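On clarity, I found the account of how folds are encoded harder to follow than it need be. An entry of this sort, consisting of the sequence and the corresponding backbone structure tokens, reads as follows:
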Amino acid sequence: MKKLIYAGLAAILMIASCQKDVIPFENPEDYTQNLYIRLNPDNFAPATKAITDARIADGSKFATPQKVYIFISDEAGNIKHRIPVGTVADAANPLLDIDALKAGYRLNNIYKLSKKVQIVGNPKSGNFTEDMDATLKSMALYSDVVALVNDIQYDNDPTEIVLYGEGSISSTQEGDAIRLKANVTLNPMVSRFQITLDYDDAVIKEVTFEGVYIRNFYQTSTFGNVGGGLNSQGSLEDDYTIDQPKFAGNYYQNMFDYNLAGLDATKVFAYQFFPLTAPEIVVRYKAKNSNDNIEKLRFVRAKGFKDGDGNAFSNWLPGKLYNVDIVVGRGSDDPVGENVTLDVTITVGEWAAVNLTPVYQ
């Protein structure tokens, strides 16, 4: 009888230690697995390497995420666990924060029939119409997470971009125990342009670069890669004047740089974008012709791209770093014609993957 009482007490304690979202009338024996999870700090930029200017910084590494949400769902797509991890511990797991996750942390009482792990890193409050934490903690289905919308203008800092990863959970029988495990890699939702500017001094001289713009990109995308709000303005010849920043009022926030007095052409101009369509780069500049000394306002639009082998490039992918060197003065000036294509040689650099590996014990 005493053993039965102790067994009942153990079951009650086990239920109490489960995540708050566990349905109370489910069989407690279904929540008997442990999840050991570690955020590998080797994949991130050192804490002393704070990147504050996305326009000039190398975005090949990210800062350690300030917040991650771990979702664990069953075969039908019902989310069984919602585990927020931030710089300050959540009440459901008072010992679990980002530092603990970097050291390695074991979560108890995980649903043993779990089939899918999804992880969202660095969610931005501006991406949610309601309270971010409340929204993420209310996710009921795997598909709810996939359908979440991200807004490109909140991804201008290369160290704190939104990350996402998911993985299937496999199970193996080890004696009397079932072992569950999954591998999840967090990757950026966006790609990154890093643009350098130059000019052909055999053709033009006294060059002042006034603006760099990105156009033909989706303003938003879901974790399922469904884009929304294609930003593709019309002809560049509409109402442009010397003292007016073309498109600056209409362009999406953080997707243009403009200075009538001249941009610092020694810098790298960097922009994040959802790689759901072929983007365009527009450069506004003022220059004199070398042969006749006539100064005029000019636009060059990069609509076509080549890879390092000289082949046409169109395979835009998330998590890629696209380095683009634009040399103006070699192609036809836009807005003379809408069909102008400036072929730009680009090289593609891999962003460092962020590996987050859950291990069920």
About this structure: Residues 54 and 157 are 5 Å apart (CA to CA).
